[in-house]
Write a structure and sequence with these properties.
By secondary structure, this protein is of the alpha+beta class. Helix content is about 50%, strand content about 15%. It has four domains: about 5-150 and about 260-330 and about 590-645, no CATH class; about 155-240, Calcium-transporting ATPase, cytoplasmic transduction domain A; about 335-360 and about 475-580, 3-Layer(aba) Sandwich (Rossmann fold), CATH 3.40.50; about 365-475, Calcium-transporting ATPase, cytoplasmic domain N (3-Layer(aba) Sandwich), CATH 3.40.1110. The protein contains 24 helices and 22 strands. The strands form four sheets. Strands 10-22-21-20-11-18-19 form a seven-stranded mixed β-sheet, sandwiched between helices. Strands 2-1-3-9-4-7 form a six-stranded antiparallel β-sheet, with no helix packed on it. β16 (about 455-460) and β17 form a beta hairpin. The two termini are about 50 Å apart.
Length: about 675
């Protein structure tokens, strides 16, 4: 039975004991994970199946008039079925570890014992069989829902080749340490995260990020654990230990979901937990009534039937199976959901706020155009600017130096934070910086035009005279407009929050199709805006940088772009995307909404079962066998309905260009400005 029916669990730690039925094996998070076997080879089904066969055999013997053999077979069937839940029920009731919790297993145990005492051995055997088979099927459903997640760990190879001082060595992948040099041959899997130091190749990251197109990598590019190398040989410098990399982080984050229950799960708990003692009290009152009216035998029997009819089995499992199924399937297409609460909240989102740099854009600024006064050529202006910018680590500096590989050497370089750089190049005094610091003079109109097109403008001045302006733009991700359009089609509004200037922000937003823009926002401003928005409508914030962390934590649901990005963003977020494709957002929201609808249906069905069966059992319309049959069949239906949440529907993604793929890979390494 689900853990949710008997009492609160320790936060953040999955309970290894089934709270209603019996002990289960603790999950193995460190070693090999066994796959869920086919039902005909599942040893957990042996006792329930044996119980069912014995029960059917007893019915046949009873119908043929062989009463004594039928009773023996019924007793054996009862013992086989009861063994799956009675020992665990008694253990939890009378031990400190169980904390005296009352569960559905207790109701079933009392009902079975009472049926035997009243001479209804066949009904007791039926109860034990149907309850045990429903429990086992639920366990299989839970295991199957988590199997895809556990399979992620199998993407890490067992061994890795590392370069030592004098030779190559093959060591267990778990023994790889940060800064080790890995050698990855053609077709081999990468043992841990690393940066390419030598070699060029293509790597397949589809199993991790969901991106179907192989990514070209070379020196300086990041490669994720579990990626499959293409035809070339790569040397990587490990950036994470073999036991603590992006892939194990994904598994760890998702496993947290198994210990956290969402709002609706708590609703199911609030209904199920008091129901158990209430049902016991109701049954006791029915027995007392029987003695008062002089028919104790009849009303004791009805009390036992009521115990079974009002058991909240289906209610207790209505949400957990759905949540675990949905979270496990989401991880397969690159959406890591940290908790059941986050999954349920994700299904309510009606507004999505985007950071700009690194989220809507590639976070890979490039020089787009250069205007000059005529005193210098465009190449010379770029060369002068690059001479100074070579001393800076600012992303815009990297764009300029990349555009001018052949440049002079600058001396006396000084950086003025928030403004720009000064220095001397070939005897000329230079200043390079923003138009707020250096007046563009004759090029003011060109500078305004570049800013209006969403570019960052750099002014180049030599000896007090402006000689050129450089336009740099962080290009919009190629899939951004498609993702925004898909959100709008779902009735979800969008807004951009960025620290960039208004003109640049509005130009990028117009390209993406976002109508509402809030620019020049500090981290605290973003967080305050998200907090106000979340109070009005469920709001998701999506970002990738350290400065996005406060806003991510303030949102109804915080979404981090790439679990290998800013650690602060990932830790503050409720959901993390393993890749950087923005089209994951509408797919994730649709998946969560479908899961919530399934949860709602499950809870309604579970409550309807109790409401309908209780009076029918109380007034003797249905006997013990009929109530058990209806109740457990309904429980199996709830489980099957919950498993449907694992069917993640993702829209087909058209292939991106080579540049887009490369930028997606590079964005894993970059944070937001």
């Amino acid at each position: 039975m689900s853990r949710e029916c008997c009492g609160p669990e320790e936060p953040q730690v999955p309970e290894p004991v089934d709270a209603c039925c019996g002990p289960t094996e603790p999950a193995d998070h460190d070693g090999e994970h066994e796959e869920v076997p086919p039902w005909w080879r599942d040893r957990a089904l042996a006792l329930p199946v044996a119980s069912g066969l014995l029960w059917v055999t007893g019915l046949i013997l009873e119908w043929t008039g062989l009463e004594a053999p039928a009773l023996v077979v019924f007793a054996l069937g009862l013992a086989a079925g009861a063994w799956t839940f009675v020992p665990g029920t008694i253990t939890r009731l009378f031990t400190a570890k169980g904390r005296g919790r009352l569960g559905v297993g207790l109701l079933m145990t009392i009902a079975a014992i009472g049926a035997v005492l009243l001479g209804h051995l066949g009904e007791a055997a039926a109860l034990a069989f149907l309850f045990s088979i429903a429990e086992t099927l639920e366990d299989r459903a839970m295991d199957r829902a988590q199997q895809g997640l556990r399979a992620l760990l199998s993407l890490i190879p067992e061994t890795a080749r590392v370069s030592r001082l004098t030779e190559e060595q093959v060591i267990p992948a778990a023994d790889v340490r940060e800064l080790d040099i890995l050698i990855v041959g053609a077709g081999e899997r990468v043992a841990t995260d690393g940066i390419v130091t030598d070699g060029r190749s293509w790597v397949d990251t589809s199993a991790i990020t969901g991106e179907s197109i192989p990514v070209e990598v070379g020196p300086g590019d990041a490669v994720l654990a579990g990626s499959v190398n293409g035809s070339g040989t790569l040397r990587l410098e490990a950036t994470a230990d073999g036991r603590d990399n992006s892939l194990t982080k994904i598994v760890h984050l998702v496993e947290q979901a198994h210990a956290n229950k969402g709002e609706r799960a708590r609703l199911a708990d609030r209904i199920a937990r008091p129901l158990v003692p209430l049902v016991l009290i109701a049954a006791a009152l029915i027995v007392v009534f029987g003695f008062l009216v002089g028919e104790p035998g009849l009303w004791i029997e009805r009390a036992l039937v009521v115990l079974v009819a009002a058991s909240p089995c289906a209610l207790a499992i209505a949400v957990p199976v759905t949540v675990i199924s949905a979270i496990g399937s989401a991880s397969k297409f690159g959406v890591v959901i940290k908790s059941g609460a986050a999954f349920e909240q994700l299904g309510t989102i009606r507004r999505v706020a985007f950071d700009k740099t690194g989220t809507l854009t590639r976070n890979q600024p490039k020089v787009v155009t250069t205007h000059t006064t005529g005193e210098e050529t465009e190449t010379e202006v770029l060369g002068l600017a690059a001479a100074l910018e070579a001393a800076s680590s600012h992303p815009l500096a990297e764009a300029i130096t990349a555009a001018a590989p052949n440049r002079a050497t600058a001396v006396e370089v000084q950086e003025h934070p928030g403004h720009g750089l000064t220095g001397v190049v070939e005897g000329r005094r230079l200043r390079v910086g923003s138009p707020r610091w250096i007046d563009p003079q004759a090029l003011a109109a060109q500078a305004d035009e570049l800013a209006g097109e969403g570019m960052s403008v750099i002014v180049v001045e030599t000896d007090g005279r402006v000689v050129g302006v450089i336009g740099i733009r962080d290009e919009l991700r190629p899939e951004a407009s498609e993702a925004i359009a898909a959100l709008h089609a779902q009735g979800v509004s969008t807004v951009m929050l960025t620290g960039d200037n208004s003109r640049t922000a509005e130009a990028i937003a117009a390209q993406a199709g976002i109508e509402e823009v809030h620019a020049e926002q500090l981290p605290a401003d973003k967080a305050e805006h998200i907090l106000r928005s979340s109070e009005r409508v469920p709001t998701a914030m999506i970002g990738d940088g350290i400065n996005d962390a406060p806003a991510l934590a303030s949102a109804t649901v915080g979404i981090a772009m790439g679990v290998t990005g800013s650690a602060a963003a990932v830790e503050s977020a409720d959901v993390a995307f393993t890749g950087t494709d923005l089209r994951l957002i509408p797919d994730a929201l649709a998946h969560a909404r479908r899961g919530r609808a399934i949860m709602t249906g499950n809870i309604a069905l579970a409550l309807a079962i109790i409401v309908v069966l209780f009076p029918l059992a109380l007034f003797g319309v249905l006997g013990l066998a009929a109530v058990v049959l209806v109740h457990e069949i309904a429980e199996v239906i709830v489980i099957g309905n919950g498993i449907r949440a694992a069917r993640a529907k993702r829209h087909p993604l058209p292939p991106l260009t080579g540049d887009a793929v490369a930028s997606s890979n590079n964005s894993l390494k970059a944070g937001s400005r």
